[in-house]
Design a protein that fits this description.
Enolase-like, domain 1; 3 domains; Arc Repressor Mutant, subunit A; Beta-Lactamase; 13 helices; elongated; DNA-binding; homodimer; alpha+beta
DNA sequence: TATTAGCACTCTCCTGTTGAGAGTGCTAAT
DNA sequence: ATTAGCACTCTCAACAGGAGAGTGCTAATA
């Protein structure tokens, strides 16, 4: 479909536009990229590329601009995925500054997104491990004031989570210990999601258990498991405001709305976690299924725990994004987080 | 200094400008506010008010606009602080929807700021209780994997906080229990800040204790207390983008930078907590000591725990802010949070 | 003496025009 | 197949003119 020359021109246009958001014209291409072709020939090629949907013109007598399809082709077939030199500073910074934060995954992720946005100039995003996919190790119940129980849940993965649970009955610490050991023997090694569904089923079926210790145990456990979605971290709004892509107030509102709708972004990143692909993934502009996110691209990857993806980290920016560099950065970051978590 | 008539005119100008961000002219005043004076007389008054620093003109032949000093006078002497009717819906919403979130103060505050920004159209902010001012009740240490200890700290105020602490020595659960009971007997009833300073002192003085149980206890405790500052919650960026005050990209960058600098806002709100005044406090534009926050106003109040202010909640917006309404809202919110916390 | 009508003046903002500049597509020559 | 040449289109910046809003000042008025 595209011969070598066409590809070269497309590549030059995309790179030039990424570098500087002006529609790129034929003359500019010949001069800047030293093709052994005249502007007129370039124009013919550009015209073909436009026909094929890789480029478009903002208006007659403007240069060309890549379409989402153009970016896609560039990412898949044209851009080099080596960018190690540029990103070396980034790599050193995160390893040097963040390796020590290994006990609090939330802080680690939040700091990571900050660094990511600083270096990429786009939004850094990360999704903390979903509790649901973790494995129940043990639970500890501590009496707090009357009617309050502090629960501390340990997972096999080393996550610790606490929550204060209201109970409508008074329990001694001894009762709590018995409840805890019941839960521990019942659920040891189970996946938290499974436990939740199991509990819901049992609660609807066996109303008989009412007011026994087990029923209380179940009720407490349900409370503990009731907040399933992981935290999301987004950094770098000020950073993106500096980009020429956001010199327009409408564009700013758009990305701000997208950011506010955290649920949508969570959903999106969740998809990444599910598709257990190993590489960095890229969603470009309108490929996105979310209405509010068309116009932006997402570059993301998962980080793993015991070879299972448990969360994701990435970058959101304009479609006019330095994909090559960003992909390399996200790759670095996802591997780094995996390493920190596993090495814990 | 200002007679009754001058005040009325100033009040009209401020209110008109708050209502609609156009410089207000003499003719407009006479018509809208039905003064029994001609535009020419109003002009004379306005000229006086400008001389006194309450008003300024963006340019000759524009109307007048309040200065920070003008807003200050308005807030202190002119505006009515009754706004109950307008805010009734707001009051109902927060009491109905948020009262149930009493076990997790962070979620309560974050939801509160969301509601606050929705109703005010400005940024809602809140500072969670500073751990330092709380009172040690007891600590529980649980063995996590090798070299990791899960600490659960209870305060008299009912706060629970957990943290995973790395230790460079292996301890049995039994050791941990002994350490915990040492800490419990040593620090029961102490203020957390005191404990921290005490620990720092002891660690520098008595190196002798090295490698004993007590030294280990102290080390763990220090870790637990090492993150002193409270969380900050800010909501409503999309909300403020809708205001005419932020139709300019520069203004947007300004407020975005201010938001990113969370430390500064924390500092600012901390001051509110310290000055133990009971009322809602207002900082207008350049009264602010923070460079990045000039140009914005802050309306904030503290919420209390046992009649001690422990955190603050408020609103950040343009100096052209509906002070009357906002002050009433912040008042409602701060009292609401106090009630929820105390009633816990 | 305080108030006001009248008027000249200033400044912004909108609109329309114009010319430069950049880039294109097409055609004919190489 | 490539390219030079040219007419055409579109944007953008600069400029001018006119409407509109508001002011300050002065002289007349109650």
């Amino acid at each position: 479909m595209l011969d070598e020359r066409d590809r070269e021109v497309l590549c030059a246009i995309v790179q030039s536009y990424i570098n500087n958001p002006d529609p790129v014209g034929s003359r500019f291409i010949t001069r800047k990229y030293a093709f052994s072709l005249s502007p007129a020939s370039i124009r013919n090629i550009m015209s073909d590329l436009e026909e094929l949907g890789f480029l478009r013109q903002p208006h007659t007598s403007a240069g060309r601009v890549p379409t989402d399809k153009g970016y896609r082709f560039y990412v898949d077939s044209l851009c080099s995925h080596e960018h190690q030199y540029d990103n070396r500073a980034f790599f050193y910074e995160i390893t040097r500054e963040l390796e020590s934060i290994k006990n609090d995954i939330d802080i680690l992720l939040s700091e990571t997104t900050k660094r990511l946005s600083n270096f990429s100039h786009y939004l850094g995003v990360a999704l903390s491990p979903k509790a649901g996919s973790a494995t129940f190790n043990r639970i500890k119940l501590l009496k707090h004031r009357r009617n309050h129980v502090v629960t501390v849940l340990f997972t096999d993965e080393g996550m610790v989570r606490n929550k204060v649970v209201d109970v409508d009955f008074d329990l001694t610490q001894r009762d709590l210990n018995r409840i805890a050991s019941y839960l521990n023997s019942e659920f040891y090694g189970c996946n938290l999601n499974e436990i939740r569904t199991k509990i819901v089923r049992e609660m609807s079926e066996e109303k008989i258990l009412c007011d026994t210790l087990i029923s209380r145990a179940i009720r407490i456990c349900r409370e503990v498991l009731s907040s399933p979605s992981g935290n999301i971290f987004i950094s770098g709004f000020t950073e993106v405001l500096g980009l020429p892509d956001f010199s327009d107030v409408e564009k700013i509102k758009e990305i701000s709305r997208a950011m506010e709708d955290k649920h949508l972004i969570i959903k999106l990143l969740d998809k990444f976690s599910e598709s257990a692909k190993d590489e960095v993934q890229v969603i470009i502009g309108s490929e996105n299924s979310l209405a509010g996110m068309k116009g932006f691209s997402i570059v993301a990857a998962t980080y793993k725990e015991g070879s299972m993806p448990v969360g994701s980290v990435g970058v959101i920016g304009p479609t006019r994004m330095d994909y090559s560099k960003t992909i390399a950065m996200v790759d670095i970051v996802s591997k780094f987080i995996t390493k920190v978590i596993e090495g814990k």
